[in-house]
Amino acid sequence: MSLPVVYHPDYVAPLPDGHRFPMTKFKLLYELLLSEQIVRPDSTYTPQFPPQTWLELVHTPDYVQAYCQRTLDAKAIRRIGLPCTERLVKRTCTAVAGTVLTAQLALKFGIACNCAGGTHHAFPSYGSGFCIFNDLAIAAKVLLEQGLVKKVLIVDLDVHQGDGTAFIFRDHPSVFTFSMHCEANFPSQKQQSDWDIPLPIGLDDDGYLQILAKSLPDLLSEVKPDLVLYDGGVDTHVNDALGKLALSDRGIYRREMLVFTTCVAMGYPVAGVIGGGYTTDIPNLVYLHSLLHRAASEVYKAKI
Question: Which of 139, 187, 260, 288 is deepest in the core (most CB within 10 A)?
Fold first, then answer.
């Protein structure tokens, strides 16, 4: 059996012409994974549209209703940075359900990955930074509500701090938030995660991986989670339009291998989401996102 992967065609929602970062990457990512036999159709799982009660475990009913009914005001839409269209509402909600399903599959198989997810800038009552609903937070809350886990660790290695996630779980002992991010980058006002590691501009592969390799085993030993939710944003890449770190293709792959091998070796199931990545070179961006699944597949095959 190949790596369990979550994908849904509704992850793709067309944006108006001229939008800086197209969303075709989700479909192209899945097609690349299939073509290179990193995943197979029979190991692909399809999420269903989620109940509104899931969204309201994290977000206020007024915000959920306004977004889903497309009545958000212009200021709120500008803060998100994405339009509020019927197709995008469907994509957003389906992607949230995809991360919930990915987390459930990780508990069953030890490792699972989503072809979307990582919307960590969404706060309870508003969206921000291309993030509408916080899928990581919702997945953690749903699994806790379902009694499938008692302790969740969110490992956020996107180049930007997971400020929405940190805020949501600031007084929630069942969820531990870890964010390793570029210090001088969005958001300008950081929140306090349970453990933040701010990184200097221009940090390269070796410097980055040394910090992560030193921190991750201690983090897992301290938290002892029932599940790790991993945000593997590739905006840490040296050529990313919105990132200020200097990881190479190889460096990102080594990072993914480090996360998956460490979690599995220590006995912790891990669910991966793709996180951020911002470049107009879509084929290259898709390849970078595929590194999450490539590494997870290697570790999964060795595991079974």
Answer: 139
What is the DSSP track for 16-28?
-TT-SS-STHHHH
Using an 8 Å Cβ cutoff, are 156 and 165 in contact? yes
- Strand 5-6 and strand 111-114: pairing? parallel
Per-residue pLDDT tens for 117-138? 999 999 999 999 999 999 999 9
Number of domains present in the structure of the chain: 1
Cβ 245 vs Cβ 205: under 8 Å: no
pTM above 0.85, yes or no: yes
User: Can you give the CATH number for the domain in which 126 is found?
Assistant: 3.40.800.20
DSSP characters for the chain? ----EE--GGG-----TT-SS-STHHHHHHHHHHHTTSS-GGGEE-PPPPPHHHHTTTS-HHHHHHHHTT---HHHHHHHTS---HHHHHHHHHHHHHHHHHHHHHHHHSEEEESS---TT-BTTB-BTTBSS-HHHHHHHHHHHTTS-S-EEEEE-SSS--HHHHHHTTT-TTEEEEEEEETTSS-SS----SEEEEE-TT-BHHHHHHHHHHHHHHHHHHH--SEEEEE--STTBTT-SS---BB-HHHHHHHHHHHHHHHHHTT--EEEE------S-HHHHHHHHHHHHHHHHHHHHHH-
